């Protein structure tokens, strides 16, 4: 993690410097607010806070982290669009916000390409296919067979409608012809906790949030969605590549500023 921060930090500093270049003042001249569209305490939230700490040290100015997880990220987007386009207010969002919803939903109240200026890609993280360890399931084929024998009786959780975990499970349902009910939650920790509690059977879970429960035996990992092994995942998931079974993709976490006349030398249009 520290090596990744060291590699990415100069790029973020350069990008933020470009945003402030159009202004007469030296950037930054005051504190910067980063709004993760994520619940506090998730693995990705911890990553954002590590970056914020390093940015604060490099800039010599406070970098404040203010979580905005509500309304599937729309609360944070509204706050960003209401802020000046000066580079002092940023969001950190997943692929659901930056790519999936604007593509799938015509009614999305923002245009990711016009309203935001990309700053940096924070994280590319695989999802882990996890199940309730009390179920007699130890592999992806066993999961498929178990669900097929119980159509409509089992459910999967996600951190919200339209996110990568939701679409990953729907793709798996379509690919293998299985019937699972979707139970959406407000955030990733809640969706994962209910699997451990036995209320939901499975999910494609964020690695950072699910790994502690996997190591404690409260979740069972069946596969990862990356094309390479994930050594920190015990059992079959470390040797079976989920992407090869279901063609699934990694999740991403990206940082962006509001587009406008003051950002990046005038790119974009201020709403």
Task: Walk me through this protein's architecture.
This protein has 271 residues and is α/β, with parallel strands linked by helices. It folds into 2 domains: 2-125 and 252-258, 3-Layer(aba) Sandwich (D-Maltodextrin-Binding Protein, domain 2), CATH 3.40.190; 127-249, Periplasmic binding protein-like II (D-Maltodextrin-Binding Protein, domain 2). The protein contains 10 helices and 10 strands. It has helices spanning 2-21, 43-59, 74-82, 95-104, 112-115, 140-148, 164-176, 188-196, 207-215, 242-246; strands spanning 32-36, 63-65, 89-94, 116-125, 127-131, 155-158, 181-184, 202-206, 220-224, 251-258. The strands form 2 sheets. Strands 2-1-3-10-4 form a 5-stranded mixed sheet, with helices on both faces. A 5-stranded mixed sheet has the order 7-6-8-5-9. Helix 2 links the parallel strand 1 (32-36) and strand 2. The longest helix has 20 residues, at 2-21. It is elongated. The two termini are 37 Å apart.
């Amino acid at each position: 993690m520290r090596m990744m921060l060291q590699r990415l930090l100069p790029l973020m500093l350069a990008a933020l410097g470009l945003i402030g270049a159009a202004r007469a003042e030296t950037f930054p001249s005051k504190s910067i607010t980063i709004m993760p569209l994520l619940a506090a305490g998730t693995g990705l939230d911890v990553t954002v806070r590590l970056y914020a700490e390093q940015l604060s040290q490099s800039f010599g100015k406070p970098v404040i982290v203010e979580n905005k997880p509500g309304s599937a990220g729309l609360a944070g987007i509204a706050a960003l669009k209401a802020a000046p386009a000066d580079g002092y207010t940023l969001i950190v969002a997943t692929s659901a916000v930056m790519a999936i919803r604007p593509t799938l939903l015509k009614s999305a109240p923002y245009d990711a390409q016009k309203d935001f200026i990309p700053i940096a890609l924070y994280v590319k993280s695989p999802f882990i296919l996890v199940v309730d360890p009390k179920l007699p399931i130890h592999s992806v084929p066993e999961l498929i067979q178990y669900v097929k024998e119980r159509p409509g009786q089992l459910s999967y959780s996600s951190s919200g409608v339209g996110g990568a975990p939701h679409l990953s499970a729907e793709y798996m349902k379509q690919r293998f012809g299985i019937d699972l009910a979707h139970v959406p939650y407000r955030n990733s920790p809640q969706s994962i906790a209910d699997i451990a509690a036995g209320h939901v059977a499975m999910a494609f879970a964020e690695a950072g949030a699910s790994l502690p429960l996997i190591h404690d035996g409260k979740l069972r990992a069946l596969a990862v969605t990356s094309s390479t092994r994930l050594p920190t995942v015990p059992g079959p998931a470390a040797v079976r590549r989920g992407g090869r079974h279901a063609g699934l993709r990694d999740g991403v976490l990206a940082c962006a500023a509001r587009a406008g006349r003051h950002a990046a030398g005038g790119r974009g249009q201020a709403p």
